[in-house]
Amino acid sequence: MKAKWWKVLAIILLAYTLTAGLLLDVPRLPILNETIRALYFHVAMWFTMILLLLVAVVYSIRYLRSNDLKDDDVAIEFTNAAILFGSIGILTGMLWARFTWGAFWVNDPKLNAAAIGMLMYFAYLVLRNSLVDVSQRARIGAVYNIFAFSAFLPLIFVLPRLTDSLHPGNGGNPGFNAYDLDSQLRMVFYPAIIGWTLLGAWIGTLRVRLRRAERKIEEKLINQVS
Amino acid sequence: MFQQLKTLIKKEITLEWRQKYALNGILLYVISAVFLTYLSFGARDGNISPPTWNSLYWIIILFSAVNAVAKSFVQEHQGRQLYYYMVASPESIILSKMIYNALLTLLLALLGYLVFSVILGNPIANQGLFLVNLVLGALGFSACLTMVSGIASKASNNATLMAILSFPVVIPILLMAIRVSKNAMDGLDWSTSSDKVLTLVAINAIVTATAYLLFPYVWRS
C-alpha cells in the first residue's frame, strides 16, 4: 500500500468529479432537476462506506484467525473511515431529500436502515472502548463487527426491496438503469465512486500507520523503563 | 453433541427452576408492562387501533426478552463458567443457551399475548399464522440476544451495552415479525405472507449461523 500512484489517481478522480460533476450537462428530469448532481456525492458515499466496511470485516475475520493486532488496526480504522463516510452520506442525503421529497427526513426504509447501521457501528465503538484488555478488545470487537455486518446486509439489501421506497429500484420505482442513468451521468458517476473509495482507503491506511507507529513508541517506552 | 445439548438444556431449566424468583420476576415484568401501557393509553376495549396493538405488543416482547436473556451469561460465576469451558464444546453451549432462551422468549410472548387479549382485546384474525410468527420471532430474538449477551458479559457496565448492542441487530427480525403479524391481524391468506415468513426464516438462519461460528472466539477469552 506504499505505492503512490493510487493516491495521485484519487486526487485526479476527485478533482474531475468536483469540476465535471458541477459543470457538465445533466439530463433534465422532473422533480430532480439540477439536484441530480448529488448522485456523484451522496450515492458514492454509500458505495464507499459498504466497501470500507467489507474490508473491515475481512480483516476482523483475519484477526480471529491470526491473532495479529496489525489486522485489528485495519479493521477498526476502516470502520472509523466508513462511519465518517456514512455520516456524510446521511447528511448529503438529507439535503437532497429536502429539495426533492420536501423534508430532511422521510419515513423511507433505506433512510431508516442507514440510520440503524450507524447505530450499530457506534455501538461497536462503545463496546471496544468499554473493554480494557487490548487483545480481548480486539477479539470481542472483531466478533461483534462480523455479527453486526451479517445483520446489516439484510437490513440494507433485502428489507428495503420488500417495501415501497422513494429510492430508485425499490417497490415499483424504476432502478438506476431505467432511470436515465445516461452515458453522461455514468461518465462522472463511475469515476466518482472509484475516487471516493480510494480517498476512503487513503484515510484508513493513514490512520492505520499512525496507530502502528503509536504502538511502536509505546512499546519502546515500556521496554526502556523495565 | 446431542447428548451434551440435552444435558445442558436440562441444566438451564433446573437452574431456572431453582431460582424461581428470576422466572417469576420476568413474567411479572411482562404483565406489569402490558398493564402500564393499558393505563397510559387510557384504553378501553377497541380504543387502540390494531397497528398500535401490534407495535406495542412486539416492543413489550422485545424489552422483556432483552431482560430475560441478558442474565444468561452473568448469572453463573466465573469459576463455574471455567468448568463448562472444560467439559463442553462452545458450540453446544451456545446452541443450548439459544434453544433454552427461545423457549423462555416463547413463554413470555404467549403470556404477553394472553394478557394483551384479556385487557386490550384480541384483533388477530389468523391465529395459526400469528403463532408461527411468534415461534419464529422467539427463535430470532433468542439467537441474536444470546450472542449479544455473551459479548456484553465480557465487558463492564453490561446492562447498557446489552441494549445498545442488541437493538440495531435485532431490528431486522423485529420489523419482519411486525409485518407478518400485521398480515395475521388482517386475516390475510397464508400465501400473501409466505415470502415475508421466508425472509424471517432466512434472517434467523443468518444470525444463528454467524453466532454459532463466532461464539467459540467469545467463549475462549
TrEMBL record, chain A:
Coiled coil: none
Domain Cytochrome c assembly protein, first and last residues per copy: 16-157
Major localization class: membrane
Top-rank taxon, per record: Bacteria
Molecular function GO terms recorded: heme binding; lyase activity
Statement: the UniProt record of this protein carries the keyword Membrane: yes
Keywords: Cytochrome c-type biogenesis, Lyase, Membrane, Transmembrane, Transmembrane helix
Pfam families: Cytochrom_C_asm
Membrane-topology descriptor: Multi-pass membrane protein
Record bears the keyword Lyase: yes
Location in or out of the cell: Membrane
Residues that span the membrane, as ranges: 39-61, 81-99, 111-127, 139-159, 188-206
Any one Gene Ontology BP term: cytochrome complex assembly
InterPro entries documented for this protein: Cyt_c_assembly, Cyt_c_biogenesis_CcsA/CcmC
GO CC annotation terms, alphabetical: plasma membrane
PANTHER family (alphabetical): CYTOCHROME B_B6 PROTEIN-RELATED, HEME EXPORTER PROTEIN C
Protein name: Cytochrome c-type biogenesis protein CcmC, putative heme lyase for CcmE
Phylogenetic classification of the source organism: Bacteria, Pseudomonadati, Bacteroidota, Cytophagia, Cytophagales
TrEMBL record, chain B:
Highest rank taxon of the organism: Bacteria
PANTHER family with a match to the protein in the record: CYTOCHROME C BIOGENESIS B-RELATED, HEME EXPORTER PROTEIN B
InterPro entries from the UniProt entry: Cyt_c_biogenesis_CcmB
Topology class, membrane: Multi-pass membrane protein
GO biological process, one term: cytochrome c biosynthetic process
Organism: Mariniradius saccharolyticus AK6
Coiled-coil residue spans: none
Gene Ontology molecular-function annotations: heme transmembrane transporter activity
Main location: membrane
Keyword Transmembrane helix included in the entry's annotation: yes
Name the UniProt record assigns to this protein: ABC transporter involved in cytochrome c biogenesis, CcmB subunit
Entry GO terms, CC: plasma membrane
Phylogenetic placement of the source organism: Bacteria, Pseudomonadati, Bacteroidota, Cytophagia, Cytophagales
Family: Belongs to the CcmB/CycW/HelB family.
Pfam family, one: CcmB
UniProt entry keywords in alphabetical sequence: Cytochrome c-type biogenesis, Membrane, Transmembrane, Transmembrane helix, Transport
Location within or outside the cell: Membrane
Transmembrane portions of the chain: 21-43, 55-74, 94-116, 128-152, 159-178, 198-219
